[in-house]
Amino acid sequence: MSAADLARLQFAATTGIHWLFVILTMGLVPLVAIMHTRAAFTREPAKRAVRERMTRFWGQLYVINYAVGIVTGLVMEFQFGLSWSGLSKFAGNVFGAPLALETLIAFFAESTFLGMWIFGWGRLRSGVHVTLIWLVALTAYASGYWIMIANGFMQHPVGYEVRDGAAYLTDFGALLTNSSALVALFHITLAALTTGGAFVAGISAWHFLKGTKETELFRGSLRLGLWVAMVTSFFVVIVGEMQRPVIERTQPMKHAVLENSGVAELQAQLVKEHGPGDYVPWQDTMRISMDVMTLIGNTVSTITLIAVVLLWKDRLMRWRWASWVLVAMIPFPFVASAGGWVVREVGRQPWLVYGELTVEDALSQVGTAALAVSCAVFIAIFLALAVTNWALMTRFARRGPEATQLGTVEPLPDDEKQPLAVI
């Protein structure tokens, strides 16, 4: 493999694995926030206790995924300097700020709010405690916004001018409202919520299959997960189609490959505009990824719709096969979202910044042997972290609320509870 192939493989593998953490984090935290809010505003003591246990159970799974996932995120931006110094030199003046803001929000604001929420059980007033988990959710999506702004510039560069071979920002508003970023962010948000809903519904169904005693807890979780997954999986397909006009306008070759029409004509046109080269991305890879993503999206939407109807008629828990289908559905959204990223990233090849900077020009002057070693090490570490994450989550998910350690502190007397100052 060439140096460019190794660098691309390394970034694709590490980004793809990291994305599996991110999409569950973004999808699960709003559900945990809803659970906590319902618990806080429930007056009946018995029902409130059930909803608090529900919050703590799903909150613990969220914390595990976040804690391990943030480790994988630490190395992502370092790869710009390690393998793609040409990208930093050309576009660093433009997307350096969004990347810096994403880092500040994810590693400082979001982590701080989450830490306060974790250690606030029994120590903070209910309203303050609930506000913290909503702030965690807000900062998670704010972090996603800034990373999509940076990625959107690579997909469709706007608000800049090139001076002495480097891009300089000229219109910050254009950068922040880039259609290639905003529509994709909306699509990702819905995909994440579908993932979180399917995750909650699948684990809840598994506990019913095993004859759980926490029937009220998991019935409430199942209902919430199914409704969220059903609604968002329906709209994720619609918003996905909304991206086609944006792609056709900003990346005509990607659109031509997906539509399987006009590829040869566009290749000839791009050769005239940018010089000799192969401007056609991997067609089979893109089409297969698109087909998989579309098929899974429609499948999840259908399954969750049927499950909601069965739940409404009080038949879902009586038919074990239906519960097994929900359990088997857990990985579907992860596979679909990975396919979506393949289409988005592979489709703009051979450009790293579309129309301005190619992959070959962005590559750092690093030897093939060094890249091979770093590629093998990074992929091995990321795979180990992914296995560790899912092993921990599987263990605690199977053990149920009884094994939940989050929030198991002795509450302080009411007169000793204070707001944020106690942390």
UniProtKB/TrEMBL annotation:
Coiled-coil intervals: none
This protein's UniProt keywords: Cell membrane, Electron transport, Heme, Iron, Membrane, Metal-binding, Transmembrane, Transmembrane helix, Transport
Superkingdom per UniProt: Bacteria
GO molecular function: electron transfer activity; heme binding; metal ion binding; oxidoreductase activity, acting on diphenols and related substances as donors, oxygen as acceptor
Spans through the membrane: 16-36, 57-76, 96-120, 132-154, 184-209, 221-240, 292-312, 324-343, 363-392
Entries under Pfam families matching the protein: Cyt_bd_oxida_I
A cellular component term, taken from the record's GO annotations: cytochrome complex
GO biological process: aerobic electron transport chain
Membrane topology: Multi-pass membrane protein
Main location: membrane
Annotated compartments: Cell membrane
Similarity-based family: Belongs to the cytochrome ubiquinol oxidase subunit 1 family.
Protein name: Cytochrome ubiquinol oxidase subunit I
Organism annotation: Streptomyces kanamyceticus
Species lineage: Bacteria, Bacillati, Actinomycetota, Actinomycetes, Kitasatosporales
